[in-house]
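Z., the sequence and structure:
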Amino acid sequence: MAFPIEKFQDIRTPFYYYDTALLDNTLNAIKAELRPDYHMHYAVKACTNPTVLKHIADAGFGCDCVSGGEIQACLDAGFKAEDIVFAGVGKSDWEIELGLDAGIGFFNVESIPELEVINEMAGQKGKTARVSFRINPNVGAHTHANITTGLAENKFGIAMEDMEKVIRLAQDMPNVEFVGLHFHIGSQLLVMDDFVQLCQRINELQAQLDKAGISIPNINVGGGLGIDYQDPDGNPIPNFKAYFDTYANGIQLREGQHLHFELGRAVVGQCGSLITKVLYIKQGSVKKFAIVDAGFTDLIRPALYDAYHCIQNISSPDAPNDTYDVVGPICESSDVFIKDYTMPQTRRGELLAIRSAGAYGEIMASQYNCRQLPKGYCDL
């Protein structure tokens, strides 16, 4: 990625920079793999920068929301209400009401109590809510333990053994329409075997429902495809062909069935970078520290998940290498971006780009230590 560093000089750091040309290329790569019965809903929790959202809406995609705030952000960005799906284990009444009033595509329901509330609220408004049930497939995923979502021990979804019961319950309710099943097994998945296992489980569940005489108009397989954090320039766009081919070859769709996807990180992860300024180079008794003005308030993934992000010295990219612990100013020992990291020598005042930060970066920022939230800029 080329950075317009001369335009960065007058911007207060830290800030997020989004390359919308790369974003558009990524969106086009996804569209090239979609089939007529496939539907893409961008997982909004990854990034809600308004310009980023508008590019995705303009590409004709739908969106996957997990809060009322995300629903409103998507409506404001130009997404069609009927292309919005709303998931989450704890939907508040006002969020359900917003979804009903907006006429969203469907609610991904995660419990019987939630179904009952949606049915009651829809009845009060004289509406019919379209609902899809999130089923916990008990499929493990090769990823960090904190971002697995499809195991029986996770809080998400309805147990497989309760699937038929809740579908029958919905079919008997006057104010909801059962429209499909929803699955999601985890995030940052790079091994297609995980998705193959999900396909096999979905096929088993569909066969079970066929015997019960229950048809499923829509199957939603969630998202989960990861990105290359090690080499963002070498692999700026994920392998969407392998991902979509896995489902095309693995899921046995019935006639007229539609398949829905909810990719997030794979859409926006590589187009965003956190730009930060070096405050001090501190020589400790053992280590050398590059102290920067960004911290885990701006990008929490390394502290939260021990996540790796490539860091580039964009002020002096050709300088000889040195080794640093790159750390932030927050008064917490966990405010460390990376340890023992080799990169071009850097000095006070130079800019570093923390790469692959377009997903779960700006959106997860906080104001701990009374710090200002980082701003996001697109194609300065």
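Residues 192-211 form the longest helix (20 residues). DSSP finds eleven helices and 17 strands in the chain.

Let me know what you think.
H.
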